[in-house]
């Protein structure tokens, strides 16, 4: 089997499992730090590994433009290129291409677009997206899909979903199966239950190593997202990993785990860190706030990461002085906080105490 997924425990709908790849195991529920351009912004691979992360996310769109997939392949693949020797999942680039607006043109064949770097023209097809991810040596390849705009009419969502399903079949046909590598399909259908059901049925008839839930975290709000997940997660196979793309904040992740989701990714930990916002065991804070100027307490003593032990006053000073170490340390802390949260989630599912973790994070973040 290309990827082996083993479920070890349940607590309600929440699941604790292990996804095994050619570059190591991914403990689920898992949060993937985003390394869009072969780097988690501001952090070395050793710093990311130190947080306990099992897997990183890279991006097809950005890497195909610079330095190009061909160059990465010549240099030994993405693991060697960025010196990250654990698993890597790559986004197909569909979301980024769809976000280009007037710079892209979609057809049944694929998406023609102009590079945001130099204006050069490119065509991203399901076959090309799959080929690029093979060149990158990604452990988990994502199918190319059309990321449906939000809000969308029923007709728009149906047309978009059906095209994504045709593209999913083309990605499956182009994928080169090998041990320890896999291909994930992406469920679409916007906010419409019957379209999500039709998408799930189509994906399962094709057959994938894992299944993602796409088209959420696009501005619909948490209540609507959870409403969709209440139905959408259960439409996917129980024996394969389920991945909610682009999510999210702590309570988004916890709410999705409660509904049976296994994998997550989001830029929030590092993006927030670069702008002085820290996620902590007592809630979200802005380290630029004047009240931290004389605060000699550790940023978050409950988080074991090195960055979390620097004083709030020191971090406040770094940001006020515009020293680059400030964003680095806060990004490092935020990634460590997320990984510690995932560790607590996994352990509590094994112990049957997930409800206690839910209550504690709700108290901190509501």
Radius of gyration from CA coordinates: 20 Å
Strand line-up in the sheet with most strands: 4-14-13-12-11-10-6-5
> How many helical elements?
14
**Alpha carbon gap, first and last residue:** 42 Å
Low-confidence stretches: none
Helix content: 40-55%
The tally of beta strands, per DSSP, is: 16
CATH architecture of the largest domain: Alpha-Beta Barrel
Task: Based on the model shown, name its key terms.
TIM Barrel; alpha/beta; 366 residues
In short, what is this structure?
With 366 residues, this protein is of the alpha/beta class. The protein has two domains: 4-266, Queuine tRNA-ribosyltransferase-like (TIM Barrel, Alpha-Beta Barrel), CATH 3.20.20.105; 268-366, no CATH class.
What do you see in this structure?
There is one protein chain. The chain has 366 residues and is α/β, with parallel strands linked by helices. The chain has two domains: 4-266, Alpha-Beta Barrel (TIM Barrel); 268-366, no CATH class. It contains 14 helices and 16 strands. The strands form four sheets. The chain has an eight-stranded parallel sheet with strand order 4-14-13-12-11-10-6-5. The chain has a three-stranded antiparallel sheet with strand order 1-2-3. Helix 11 (268-274) packs antiparallel against helix 13, helix 12 packs across helix 13 (325-351) and helix 13 (325-351) runs antiparallel to helix 14. The longest helix has 27 residues, at 325-351. The chain is globular, with a radius of gyration of 20 Å. The termini are far apart. 51% of the residues are buried.
Outline the secondary-structure elements.
Layout: E1 4-11, E2 14-21, E3 24-28, E4 30-33, H1 45-50, E5 56-59, H2 60-65, H3 69-74, H4 78-82, E6 88-91, H5 94-98, E7 104-106, E8 111-114, E9 121-124, H6 126-136, E10 140-142, H7 154-174, E11 182-187, H8 193-206, E12 210-213, H9 222-232, E13 242-244, H10 250-258, E14 263-266, H11 268-274, E15 277-280, E16 283-286, H12 312-320, H13 325-351, H14 354-365
Parallel strand pairs: 4-14, 5-6, 6-10, 10-11, 11-12, 12-13, 13-14
Antiparallel strand pairs: 1-2, 2-3, 7-8, 8-9, 15-16
Helix pairs in contact: 6-7, 7-8, 10-14, 11-13, 12-13, 13-14
